[in-house]
Amino acid sequence: MRQKENFNNAADVFYVICRLFIGLFFFITGFNKLFDPIFQGYMLKTISSLGFSSPQLMANFVAFNEMIWGLFLLIGLFTRFSALSLIIIMLVALFSKDIHSIPIELIPIDPKTPSRAMDRFTWLTYFFFLPQVLYIMLLGLFSLYGYKAFGVDRFIGKKKNHFR
Questions:
Q1: What is the pLDDT of residues 29-64, one digit of tens each?
Q2: Of 48, 52, 111, 152, whose Cβ has the fewest other Cβ atoms within 10 Å?
């Protein structure tokens, strides 16, 4: 069934704006990691520190995928698959690198107060502050609802219906 392309409410407009901005974000970050020497170095250092074999190949592979799937999300092409692909990239980044940035103890500002171990709720607070968590949640919405409006998927849907 082909998706209607119209906006029923402000939520639909906001949804499309989020899809466009998140797609643009991934396109730009992937592009920079592929073509900007500073970002290339940062990406290579990150991949190398994680112990991946062939770090240069892996850095280019991840950056290329971020760029391509971000572009596809931006233009609304294979929106659901693009979002799922970016979710995989974010999950790998989250569990291989960023989740380890959460501290294991709380160190107070006042040096006279002793530090204490991190409780579960505080750990969750730090976890939800990680940007990858928000990206995964938004990408999950895009993978469920598709392009909504302003997307190349609209024309693909028309072409499929035309041949039935």
A1: 999 999 999 999 999 999 999 888 899 999 999 999
A2: 111
Question: Over 50: is that where the pLDDT of 157 sits?
Answer: yes
**C-alpha distance from residue 122 to each of 95, 113, 114, 134 (Å):** 18, 18, 17, 17
Distance CA 63, CA 33 (A): 6
Give me the amino acid identity at 152: V
Alpha helices (H) along 55-152: 55-75, 79-96, 120-129, 131-145
> Could you tell me which residues come within 8 angstroms of residue 5 by beta carbon, excluding any fewer than 6 positions away?
149, 150, 154
pLDDT at 158: 62
Which residues, including other chains, have CB under 8 Å from residue 85's CB and lie 6 or more apart?
A: 65, 69
98 vs 82: CA distance, rounded Å: 22
pLDDT band at 118 (very low <50, low <70, confident <90, very high): confident
DSSP summary character for residue 8: -
What is the C-alpha to C-alpha distance for residues 32 and 54, in angstroms, rounded to an integer?
20
Average pLDDT, the chain: 89
**In sequence order, which residues have a C-beta less than 8 Å from that of residue 33 and are 6 or more positions away?**
39, 40, 42, 43, 59, 62, 63, 66, 67
- Per the document, the length of the chain is 164
